[in-house]
Amino acid sequence: MELTDFLTPGGEWLRGDGRDADVVMSSRVRLARNLAGFPFATRASDEQRSEILGKMRTASETLPLGPRRYFVDLTPPGSRRESKELELDRTLLHERHLISTELEKGKGPRGVAFGSDERVSVMVNEEDHLRIQAIRSGFALDEALADARALDVALEGAVRYAVSPTYGYLTACPTNVGTGLRASVMLHLPALVHAQEMNRVFQAASRTGLAVRGFYGEGTKAMGDFYQISNQVTLGQSEEEILRKLSRMLPTFLEYERKVREHLVATYRVKVEDKVFRALAVLRAARTVSTDEAMELLSAVRLGVVTGLLTGVDLARLHELFVLVHPAHLRRQAGRALDTAVERDTARATLLRQRLSA
Amino acid sequence: MELTDFLTPGGEWLRGDGRDADVVMSSRVRLARNLAGFPFATRASDEQRSEILGKMRTASETLPLGPRRYFVDLTPPGSRRESKELELDRTLLHERHLISTELEKGKGPRGVAFGSDERVSVMVNEEDHLRIQAIRSGFALDEALADARALDVALEGAVRYAVSPTYGYLTACPTNVGTGLRASVMLHLPALVHAQEMNRVFQAASRTGLAVRGFYGEGTKAMGDFYQISNQVTLGQSEEEILRKLSRMLPTFLEYERKVREHLVATYRVKVEDKVFRALAVLRAARTVSTDEAMELLSAVRLGVVTGLLTGVDLARLHELFVLVHPAHLRRQAGRALDTAVERDTARATLLRQRLSA
């Protein structure tokens, strides 16, 4: 399997276009599905998991995954050396938001199918047998849902789902039962972070049954001032209700971030410009940069671009860097092992200089 | 009095040329002299101080001060507004190292004579009636002494010095009696500061009777990793002995700094480059910069230039900035009051961007 050929252009969701793209980086819809006649993935034997994986490999050949199809078997093979390569691929896919932490770090037979524009993917043997995922740039939950549904319908023609007439789609975890839908938006909230207003965001989200997570979803920390906001419960709600709830709350967060941005620019324009211009200058000049610092500086540059303080930096190009600065991508690009932090920080700085040079 | 016309080009000592200019920014010789027939300046009445100032104004017209002569009366006038202007001029002259903190902040009739290349100056009614000062770029104590002596000889023809056949030139403070000579070198020691080796410099200096001071001499802090090293005692030593002692110790400091620079570049090249390139990038991009940060960043850039890591930055142009970033210079250049720190930091950033743009 060769992942290198599709790695440089970022996924469609990194384009920086779509509605409310000043705050909303991307919208994501995920459907949890399980196959009838198999125990849930967590209880299935390796043979059963392999069988599911095999069924999905066959099914994926006819699925509407996008311009070019990939099916990646993430099952650890026998030899240690191959396993190192595979580990890198798994991390790479995770860095691209194509697979979850669970699929990256988990055990046993598992895999992922996706299209080369990275708009839709199907994880196999994650917590559920299948997790259909659709991501779009900007605020586009309806479009993402439509993408996921199209895939869902196609899959339903190829495999047999586990469905209860009472509860709807059966899932390994009760919070997903029903529609099996989880919707989320990735928000860029540099102004709220700067103004130390994030606690109010957390409170507002928690009051309305929304979860706030980091850049890589559940259990990950915020990086580059990115926060993923998602619905918590799916049982007893229709897909439309779930999306409507998130969509109804979203303007509050967007307006909050925008107001604070406006306030910062109006009241502390020089300071904001200072932060933005320094960040870009450092990214263009540094010889060694850690992941966290890179994300922080890129966030400041993104703030500069979306507030109009900074011109001449392409948003799509910038967004790709939020993915490309991570270790597996750096290593892939370097074409050799980058074993020490010093090597990675140096490679990261080189990449940033090249990609952001004026 | 118009000081603006000679303010932009830096003094000769900022050129960055001369021997050992990689470490030695400048060499300075100062002679303390008092006039016969007057009490020491600290005990003289305002009338007596005015009389001395008047004598010096007349004498300065024939002194070898350089291509163009300036005589600046620093005596506070009656009106408050004029006094504000004068205060600015005094700070300006102090920022250029043309007058001491004592002459800047002191009271009563006082002044200074100097040439437009700022190589020699005579302060009037500082601690002593006259303080002849000569500064040269790089390690050039002999040349500075020659400049100071030429001025001393010319002055001796114009006024009558207080001299004791036993002690030599009489001075207000006993540490200056004899030759009245103080010699100093301004060293740039970024590597020793970075490697936290300055305590050893302080100890070595103290053991050999040398004083280590900050960028603006006695009682000032180090800025931009600049340290002034000078002799402490003049009584009982000839001018040559004083200079020889400082010159004998100097190579120890120079070699020490150079060794640590070499070590840093050899062992942590990427980190040093990172520091240097970031510093220049920030200076070229920032929208607000404090004096301390400016001095620190300029110091890193200077390290880059003298170690050859950085090309395309002119050392003389860089050195001027070590003076131009200070408040009175910023205000002079702005042509208006810069009353708040925010205004000054913004003006400083603008100046740095303009002067260092690629």
Q: What is the CA-atom radius of gyration of chain A, in angstroms? A: 21 Å
Q: Specify the helix fraction band of chain A.
A: 40-55%
Instruction: Tell me the CATH superfamily of the largest domain in chain A.
Output: Glutamine synthetase/guanido kinase, catalytic domain
Task: Give the CATH level 1 class of the largest domain in chain A.
Answer: Alpha Beta
Mean of all residue-level pLDDT scores of chain A? 90
Structural class of chain A: alpha+beta
Q: Strand portion of chain A, in percent? A: 15-25%
Overall 3D geometry of chain A? globular
Biggest interface found: A-B, 17 and 17 residues
Question: How widely separated are the two ends of chain A?
Answer: 36 Å
Oligomer: homodimer
Give the strand order, joined by hyphens, for the main sheet of chain A: 2-3-4-5-1-8-10-9
Give the tally of structural domains of chain A: 2
Strand/helix succession of chain A: EHEHHEEEHEEEHHEEHHHHHH
Q: What is the total tally of β strands of chain A? A: 10
Low-confidence stretches of chain A: none
Number of separate helices of chain A: 12
Strand count, sense and closure of the main sheet of chain A? Answer: 8 strands, antiparallel
The CATH topology label of the largest domain in chain A is Creatine Kinase, Chain A, domain 2
